[in-house]
UniProtKB/TrEMBL annotation:
Cited Gene3D superfamilies: Fumarase/aspartase (Central domain), Fumarase/aspartase (N-terminal domain)
Stored SUPFAM superfamilies: L-aspartase-like (SSF48557)
Molecular function GO terms recorded: ammonia-lyase activity
Matching CDD domains: PAL-HAL
Species name: Shewanella woodyi (strain ATCC 51908 / MS32)
Keywords annotated in UniProt: Lyase, Signal
Full protein name: Phenylalanine/histidine ammonia-lyase
Length: 552
């Protein structure tokens, strides 16, 4: 069962510390074909980045178009006039001439905008996520729809490749651009604020000097373009998706282990059963589970086997199929997002005239010259589709945790397992074994249930009533991260429980496991031993089990 193009090597890399030095892979950013797989390589320090020749030309042309438009006296948000409540305040004169005074005024305006918008709070966003965000933003700039100086692109590329990571607080975005968060990246590019560099948190100016990086002098609409985008939220989402995919891929293996742990009935996942209601992906999930059970005792007739198991076992394939569907929907949107511009204004090279160009209101946005195109005020930063689809995926992942928790509740009861109470080793007559572990995964289930609640409705109008909408995309992405992490640990509890049960099925009933479950159990026992008695803590094994399944 494969969800997308992500490779197993990338999934493994998601769980290890970044490694920098000589990188074998260099990703060329074209503005149109960046993938989640490539982003995860950048996140984990196994790839560097560069801008393609066409991307560089797009960047130069879009900047030239922007400046030509200003010279012609066309009002441009964030360039010739201010932003937000100051959208009607002139920065350049109406004639758009680039006098020394106008250039200095623009530089000061851009610098001050990055300072005044750096107003977030909370612990720093994970460095690997910020690295991905800068890569996303550079690829968006390479589309030619942004209009920054080429020097801005240089700073993004050098920051990523030299592992200079701005300290970006985690709280402060309402989801229609990460304005208060991304401003810290711009401040760091100017040599202000702080960064992480060579394992140390230090002033940005000190790091840039040590790395031989010339600071940015922002101009034009550089400041607005650096702060007004959703790259940080998108990077946080991609990080969570990379972890979620591994959990979805592991789910059929876990369900197969669970069915052999309880002498379960395979009837609900047989091909003809599922053909009666052929919902998306359910056949492939059912087939995956059956493949992991082949060669085992569940295919042998057993008159004592229950006709129907508890629903969390009998229908375990349904939430996995749903998670695949939701993942694929989200992946489609993410691919669009990372390969397009969410800027306001939108700079569009060689914009095609339409029938609406006959109207003066429309024609004013077009510029013809050495570089032709259009510059339009837009709301392309609105992320409501991404936010609500992320929320749908969060719910789908949380359902995996719910089903897992319900399955585990059954595992201490001999009625369901046919094994000793709480999976106690029969040789340990006074043992408690897995009896109290249920508090651990129940607490996690409460966490993921809370984090999977939608947040895209909440907010309040600000900026004098101009900013009167919100999607909370960044919060939705953080919530998904919480859900995915919680499910990984709920699965860790479940895997440990099944490991014990499978050993007991062999020991108590002399049952022959499937080849896949024999291999899984053998591999698990290299890090988590059978619980022969109650003489060791579970906590270390829970951590080991989580790391095991995230790499398996």
């Amino acid at each position: 069962m494969k969800l997308s193009v992500l490779s197993q090597s990338v999934l493994v890399a998601c769980c290890v510390a970044p490694a920098f030095g000589v990188l074998a892979d260099t990703i060329s950013l074209t503005g149109k074909d960046l993938t989640i797989e490539q982003l995860l390589k950048v996140q984990n320090g196994v790839a560097s980045i560069t801008v393609s020749q066409q991307g560089k030309q797009n960047i130069q042309n879009s900047f030239d178009l922007l400046m030509d438009s200003a010279r012609q006296g066309t009002p441009v948000y964030g360039l010739t006039v201010g932003v937000g409540k100051n959208k009607d305040t002139e920065v350049f004169g109406k004639d758009g001439k680039m006098s020394d005074e106008a250039v200095k005024l623009s530089e000061d305006f851009n610098r001050d905008m990055l300072f005044t918008h750096s107003a977030a709070s909370g612990e720093p966003i994970e460095q690997s996520v910020v690295r991905m965000a800068m890569t996303i933003r550079l690829n968006q700039i390479a589309t030619g729809h942004v209009g920054v100086q080429p020097d801005v692109a240089r700073l993004y590329e050098e920051f990523v490749n030299k592992n200079i990571i701005p300290v970006v607080p985690s709280d402060g975005s309402v989801g229609l651009s990460d304005i208060l968060l991304a401003s810290h990246i711009g401040a760091a590019m100017m040599g202000e604020h702080e960064v992480f560099y060579k394992g140390e948190r230090m002033p940005a100016g000190k790091a840039l000097k040590a790395a031989g990086v010339k600071p940015l002098v922002p101009f034009g609409k550089d400041g607005l373009s650096i702060l007004s985008n959703n790259a940080l939220s998108t990077a946080q989402l991609v990080h969570a998706m990379g972890q979620a995919e591994q959990l979805i891929e592991f789910s059929p293996k876990l369900i197969a282990a669970g069915l052999e742990s309880i002498n379960g009935n395979i009837s609900p996942i047989l091909p003809h059963t599922l053909d009666a209601r052929p919902m998306p992906h359910v056949q492939e999930v059912g087939n995956d589970i059956l493949t992991n059970l082949e060669g085992g005792y569940l295919f042998q007739r057993d008159e004592k086997r229950p006709l129907q198991d508890a629903l969390s076992f009998r229908g375990a394939h349904w939430p996995v199929a749903n998670a695949i569907s939701q993942y694929n929907s989200l992946e489609e949107l993410v691919h669009i997002q990372i390969n397009s511009s969410d800027d306001n204004p939108t700079v569009y090279l060689n914009a095609k005239h339409s029938r609406f160009n006959k109207y003066p209101q429309v024609e004013q946005y077009f510029t013809d010259g050495k570089v032709s195109g259009a510059i339009n005020s837009s709301a392309n930063f609105d992320t409501i589709q991404l936010a609500t689809t992320t929320e749908a995926f969060s719910i789908a992942m949380a359902q995996l945790g719910k089903y897992s928790s319900n399955r585990q509740i059954k595992m201490i009861d001999p009625y369901f397992t046919g094994l000793p109470r709480a999976l106690v080793n029969p040789d340990d007559t006074n043992g408690q074994s897995f009896y109290t572990l249920q508090n651990g995964f129940t607490a996690l289930f409460v966490d993921i249930a809370h984090a999977s609640n939608p947040v895209s409705f909440y907010g309040q109008a600000n900026q004098g009533g101009i900013e009167d909408n919100f999607s909370n995309f960044h919060q939705a992405s953080k919530n998904l991260t919480t859900v995915v992490n919680g499910v990984s640990y709920i699965y860790a509890f479940e895997l440990m429980t099944y490991g014990q049960a499978l050993d007991l099925q062999k020991k108590v009933h002399n049952r022959d496991l499937s080849d896949a479950n024999k291999t899984l159990l053998k591999d698990l026992r290299k890090t988590v031993d059978f619980y022969a008695d109650d003489t060791r803590t579970f906590t270390i094994d829970i951590e080991a089990s989580q790391k095991f399944l995230m790499k398996y």
